[in-house]
């Protein structure tokens, strides 16, 4: 499994979880996630769902280990909200859970700002 595919899916999945949690959803069915992603993101529109599901296995394992997600009885749950933060150094958009170290996932820089900036 190429690291780039895992890192890319990690980003898109965090984006998906962030948007869903903002819409009030905090529980996700594992088996539905690949088709949800394919339906929502142009990047995965023509993806092989079997392959996407395999990559997702790695991504989900890592997210559970980092306490971004938890396994419920038959679904994955978000224990808290994700924050959308932009790196002050490389401008990468990060989605971070409370349990995670507040550092850029791409360059490890520690200065992150809310993205987009606070609303007036
Ligand atoms: Zn960065």
Describe the protein in words.
Helix content is 38%, strand content 17%. The chain has three helices and six strands, in the order αβααβββββ. It is globular, with a radius of gyration of 14 Å. Helix 2 (33-40) packs across helix 3 (49-65). The protein folds into two domains: 3-77, Arc Repressor Mutant, subunit A; 82-114. A hairpin with a 5-residue loop joins strand 4 (82-87) and strand 5 (93-97). The strands form two sheets. A three-stranded antiparallel β-sheet has the order 1-3-2, with no helix packed on it. The protein has a three-stranded antiparallel β-sheet with strand order 5-4-6, with helices on one face. It is an alpha+beta fold. The termini are far apart. The chain binds zinc ion.
Radius of gyration from the alpha-carbon trace, in angstroms: 14 Å
Mean pLDDT: 94
* Strand line-up across the major sheet: 1-3-2
What oligomerization state is this entry in?
Answer: single chain
Poorly predicted regions: none
CATH-defined fold name of the largest domain: Arc Repressor Mutant, subunit A
- Name the shape in a single word: globular
Per DSSP, the total helix count is: 3
Secondary-structure element series: HEHHEEEEE
- The second-level CATH architecture of the largest domain is Orthogonal Bundle
**Total number of domains:** 2
Q: How many beta-strand runs?
A: 6
Secondary-structure class: alpha+beta
Bound molecules: zinc ion
**Residue fraction in strands:** 15-25%
The top-level CATH class of the largest domain is: Mainly Alpha
Q: How is the biggest beta sheet arranged?
A: 3 strands, antiparallel
Estimate percent helicity: 25-40%
Distance between the termini: 44 Å
């Amino acid at each position: 499994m190429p690291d780039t595919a895992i890192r890319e899916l990690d980003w898109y999945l965090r984006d998906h979880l962030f948007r869903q949690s903002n819409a009030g959803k905090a529980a996700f069915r594992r088996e539905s996630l690949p088709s949800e992603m394919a339906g929502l993101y142009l990047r995965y529109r023509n993806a092989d769902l079997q392959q996407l599901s395999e990559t997702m296995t790695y991504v989900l394992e890592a997210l559970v280990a980092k306490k971004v997600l938890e396994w419920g009885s038959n679904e994955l749950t978000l224990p808290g909200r994700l924050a959308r933060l932009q790196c002050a150094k490389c401008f990468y958009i990060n989605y971070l859970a409370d349990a995670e170290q507040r550092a850029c996932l791409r360059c490890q820089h520690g200065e992150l700002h809310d993205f987009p900036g606070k609303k007036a």
